[in-house]
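Fold this sequence, please.
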Amino acid sequence: MSQTASTDEVTVRPYSPGGAVSDEPSGKLSSNESALGPAPAVVRAVRDAVPDFHHYRTSEEFRAGLAEDLGVTPEQLLITNGSDESCYLVAFVHLGAGATVVTSDPPYRIDEIVSRINGAAVVPVPLKDGAHDLDRLAAEAQDAAIVWLPTPHNPSGIAVPPARLGPFLDRVPATCLVVLDEAYRPFLPPERRPDALELLRRHPNLLIQRSLSKSHGLAGFRVGYLIGSAAQIARLDAVRAPFNVNAAALVAAGAALRERGWSDYTVARVRDERARFEAFLDAGGFTYWPSDTNFVSFRPRDHEATVDALAKRGIAVRDGSDLGLDGWLRVTVGSAPRMLLVREALIEAGEG
């Protein structure tokens, strides 16, 4: 059961992680984890590095390699304990009592949580058919400290078209920070990925979040990073905990970036299964949002019967009530056999 944490000034509903209904991890389709896991070379690299794990390890070597890969300077990068840590750092540095942040509604829950625990007022802007309402977000940003902009969005799965990002950023005042969360960027076709670095060059008030959790299969290692101006990154780096990313995670991240083929294969499999599942939803007349991510959010006609039918097959999905989508379910795109079980469950529940 979800509980509420409170202080004299702030009331926060804690984050509720996705659960499972069995000990079989492949049936857990509630947390947007990779069905394939990390590349075999990543597993070998971590195993071989175990004898050195009694030493502290900084992220500088990984940061330098990643900077070269991205075409930025190391000073423009901050390596974090998952992309969620960057949310906490950004909120700690940029927010306080009396500040205002703007989010879509429903928001990515961590963005809302870190804003509230740092004393900010949250201005929610309802999604339009699952997409960000950029006009209203820009209007509300005029007196705000931060706009949180996950694209593709979680929980809807819809991305902002690249051609609309530049004009949106032009309308946000330089005093307002825009945090562009690209955790699901790899699942977009290349032609639909924004030129984020060009946007950074034009907009010093932009920060970009990315993660190795999804397409690289490193969710449990917790490795993310921020890209921004050297000045923005320096402010955040100054309050970052030392050794914030553990040695095993840094080894895994370095090895994962060298295994592009594995990431590409993972993304391709997700796209295939996602298309198959969305075709099933279309044929069944479901309400859902066409996804640009490794999950699909849809509205079952009989919520309880659907959850029960999934549980009988050892499948756990995310209840939309945890995400601000009452009556909806969010299902991670899993392996072909698991997605077959999902479709069978929906048919049993009278949904297909």
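Residues 105 and 126 are 4 Å apart (CA to CA). The domain at 18-37+261-348 is CATH 3.90.1150.10 (Aspartate Aminotransferase, domain 1).
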